[in-house]
Amino acid sequence: MKDDQIDGITGQVxxxxxxxxxxxxxxxxxxxxxxxxxxxxxxxxxxxAEFFREQGYEIEGPxxxxxxxxxxxxxxxxxxxxxxxxRIRVRGDRADATYKKPVVxxxxxxxxxxxxxxxxxxxxTDYSPAGDPKSLCCSxxxxxxxxxxxxxxxxxxxxTERITITNHRIKYRIFQQQDQSPIEExxxxxxxxxxxxxxTGKTCLEKQxxxxxxxxxxxxxxxxxxxGKMEKKLSDLALEPITNSKYERAKQLTAAN
Length: 257
Description:
By secondary structure, the chain is an alpha+beta fold. The protein has one domain: Hypothetical Protein Pfu-838710-001. The protein has seven helices and nine strands, in the order αβαβαβββααβββαβα. The chain has an eight-stranded antiparallel beta barrel with strand order 1-5-4-3-2-6-7-8, surrounded by four helices. The chain is globular and about 50 Å long.
């Protein structure tokens, strides 16, 4: 086989790999504000379990966890201005760096609050519980990750922590499989979040419900139909769809007067 043929095949394989990687890094989710007077454990969770079982899904959980998200941005909020986010999530003895950006041209993104974003995650194996978010950003792993995904427009030195989100999360696995067809799977979470704005010093508490598609993106329209049915079934609970990221919402709710 000639060198040019080998180069051509290599290029095709690389392109297919990149397409596969992008397809498997799409985050498809829908979030809701839960009214503060709703008891999520005794009132909301049983209603949700009943609804999903009526729709033919199986449920596993609950699993409880605590996590802290440190959202980083430039002094001019360049990332938020372009609907991008970069965070470091600390959960127990591990930390992950996550970068998200919008999906353009999706058939379901933005419909009734359903959001789609490319999501890239890097586990920071050099994490130390004694470290701070800025020091984690300066680690070799984080620097390589930032340079790869954020490009030359955003440097490690320009990033500072803008929002901290402390979250007590209850997680469930929702799934359905018929015969030999691909599994349809979701992650359902009930969040109790505390937003802290580093710039203003203000804090805000909120309850949230989130449903995220964990299987193939081809199920995105199934999710759109499913959440529509869920909203109708639970209309008496006055769940309010959230149409922006947790970072943007935190900035709005904790802004200076």
